[in-house]
Structures
1.
Amino acid sequence: MINENYVSKTVASLPPSGIRKFFDLAANMEGVVSLGVGEPDFVTSWSVREAAIHSLEEGRTSYTANAGLLELRKEIAGYMEQAFNVSYQPEHQILVTVGASEGIDLALRSIINPGEEVLVVSPCFVSYAPLVTMAGGVPKIIHTTGENQFKLTPAELEDAITPNTKAMIICSPNNPTGTQLNKEELIKITEIIKKNDLLVIADEIYAELAYDESFTSFASVGDMINRTILINGFSKSFAMTGWRLGFVCAPREILEAMLKLHQYTMMCAPTMAQYGALEALKHGWDDVEDMRSSYRQRRNYIVKSFNEIGLACHNPGGAFYAFPSIAKTGLSSQSFAEKLLLEERVAVVPGDVFGESGEGYIRCSYASSMAQLQEAVKRIARFMKNYQ
Amino acid sequence: MHLNDKELEILRIIEKNSRIDYSDLAKMVVSTEKEVEETLTKLEEMRIIVRYASIINWAKIDEHHGVTAMIDVKVTPKRGVGFDEVAQRIYRFKEVESVYLMSGVYDLSVIVEGNSMNEIARFVSEKLSTLDSVISTTTHFILKKYKHDGTIFDQPEEDNRIVVSP
């Protein structure tokens, strides 16, 4: 008889995703306004969809090169150079992946020896720590705090480093906090990284969604390009989440190791998605700009509204999440989110799902229509009146 | 005329939804309600905001019998006033919805609405073609409107996203 004993002990030991519970609750409810969605509310632009359709009509249904279409990698190289001032060779330093998620997994598996530590800057995307574990490493969580707007401080970084530390994984602009590190802050952090001979896995999937300060890539600071595994993709910037298409830029030796794993696990990213991405990079920039303005307006609206109704909220520089404090209510994140869903039918994600220091906060995605956001604010305001 | 970033942003937002609550609009552009109202008043006075209109899909309404035609008009421009004078003579007719000066094989594109094809035919033959400067007209009737001013008339694509995702 097959039972749970057949499941690998490592997998069994992974914590279940904290989001699952809310998904199950919310999915079966009528009239829910959701601020829980971690993806754009835009549909991929028609020109990109049309390019993918055309690639199918042309019969381009075979594998591509393992690393992805060379034409696409060249386009990515041009984009990285122009947007972030970092220079990568398309032939040796760029890998097209099945979403940024695959990139993160490959990066971790390519560099970790058993027992080595990876610093996970938290609150963060739910997959980082489990993927470190699955790669045989030991996740060491750095708890950034609300007082610093969840920005990693040099002291926090230094305190976490041990002789066993191999790398740090960090996301900026951040999911769930929206926090973005500016150039000065990056310089201070990278000095410590270099001093301790660490690698950085920089998840820059939200790089195009920076609203106030221009975005600085980890790889562009000093000679950090030599110790950065840069993760990016098309999901957020071009509203292409379902296409599952990301890319990695890294030093050649590391990229080749990642490519080896990618060959064994994926062969290549989906061909039609790659043709869509090619069109996006070539002609999709007006859409990116429109989406960015729209997110910025909604960010401004929701942050101001939250602060007015008693949810203290820092101004997140990027991504599409507000991360307000619920301290005033005295409730835990889980119980706030649960009560809000049951009483007012507004879905948010409790902050502790993204790491301990997210306790006392909730993640609210503002990638929803203004009408939905207005309705959510109205309902949350009513809820706050009863709980403070 | 130069507008600042905030004014431009306000214009772009109300162009999509002119009924938006001013306090919400103020939040979106990091401004105050008073400042937004002043900006809008200023833009109205300058006739940059010309009118607050809505887009109505009349085809859905049984009581509506209107037809729309796009008419390509060739005209002789006049010394000193170019096309403006004849354009004015045309756009003053209440049947005329829009008039554009075009590049290409004809000069003015005139959009006319009427209660029936006959009514528009009469307008073209009796009013438009008889104007001194008008050389020729070609009338195209609109059979169906799919998209107008950036808005698709069909049901919008549904939000198929899962309600909670990481």
2.
Amino acid sequence: MNWFDYNTQVVAAATALLGAAAGLAGCLLLLRRRALMGDALGHATLPGIAAAYLVSVAVGGTGKEPWVLLAGAAAGAIAGVLGVVLVRRGARVSDETAMAIVLGAFFGLGTALLTVIQASPGGHQAGLSSFILGHAASMVASDLRAASIVALVCVALVVLLTKELRLLCFDESFARVIGRPVRWLDATVLIIVTAVVIAGLQAVGLILILSLLILPATAARLCTDRFTVMLPLAAAFGAISGVGGTLVSSFAPRLPTGPCIVLVAATLFVLALLFAPKRGLFAQAAMGRAGGYRP
Amino acid sequence: MTSATARTPSDFGCEHSSSSPLSIHALTVAYDRRPVLWDVDLDVPAQSIVGVIGPNGAGKSTLLKACLGLIPIASGKVSVFGKPYEEQRARVGYVPQRESVDWDFPVSVLEVVMMGTFGQLGWFQMAGKLERAKAREALDAVGLADEENQQIGQLSGGQQQRVFLARALAQSAQIYLMDEPFSSVDAATEQAIIAVLRRMRSEGRTVIVVHHDLETARDYFDWVILLNTRVVAAGPTATTLTHEQLRKTYGGRLTLLDEAAQRMQKAQLG
């Protein structure tokens, strides 16, 4: 694959959109202090995918139709979110604990189901493991188009709801007092995150999409003290990661696209950590010498 | 029919229980079936600064939150100017406890204060010049006009408290519920805040304040609500904030009671 090639350009465009959407969704998770929710939700897609395969085979299908598997992933994610809510209410534990419990339980279930599938006749060819690491370079045009549309809708939703989402993340009770439907806004955030995770499953895989949610958002937070700057910056970091990762993997064809995208995102994060104005390590050290910056 | 003829007399500020800024009837709130507020009945007078006073765990914050619909109520009724809170949001301002938000959040002082105007804005409507002007005016009133571009985490605790007060002012409400606006502020900030509250009162607004310091209560409030799960007493400060009523409110907590008695004596002598 080379980067003048039409296919590479299409993949780069799709992963750029996906990266931008993931950057925005990550900001919301980070600022709502639910970073682990992305993880819980992402890991919950695995048993969904495995169960969808088993059901599809049981009713006589091949178990390879992408839409069946993605529907399973979505169902798993929704079950994961409901699981978090139920555990939090039932066991009266914190958000973080509930998310950690659901994450572990669902991922354990998913791995167990995958093992069963792989041991079954035809199971090892089912290609389910590609959902774990992604396979952007071999995605077909229609899949890429679908992922792009989902990513675009997510970006549009965040842009339209910026004012409400900022209020929700900063001061939930004030949002409720002035009559904003906080539950629906929270549900919207989760729907956006779920959509990004599902859209990214095929391209970067379920483990790496979680990094793509958090890395650009955290890097953007390091660079600015403004919500209204942080969001576009995170989207830009995500988009750059998408394009950069696709190009890197097109130059080095043995490197899969998903990990390359996340490596670019991680590089951007490290650069921000070192060189960000005010919050970067170098800036902190310089200000420490100069007499201090109140964080 | 003009809007003037459609008005009821209560809109012109006549004293009547149904038009009280905040009227609470038989309110009970429970956490895990343990009552936190029990059978609360109150009619808060208009154009006054009202203190909510009681020991820790007495349900003071809970009272405010129940009035604002932030926590479910087990039974009873709350009305704001004679109507349910849901219909009167635009007339109610809120100052939450300072600790309730993350001050590291990436917003500027001006952006937080502008959030006070969001209640009057539609969903997809961006805040514009009018909202900005309103927020600046509110910041000016609390003495933070020069800090509008600071990230909120860079302010001192007292300044952060005043940012919340400014956001409430930007709500342009008629009744305000404030949860410990004086907590951990320095003396100068406390004076600045009480001056703002007095000006709000002179503009005809009602301010209800959860307060801890018995020494200053007599000076600050026109009316007090002594709360300890039930309303022990509620009425004008001069006749309600007495040693006897405080003993009932803080009853059983001997050290606290002695402390309260000493403070009362000091306040009466002073």
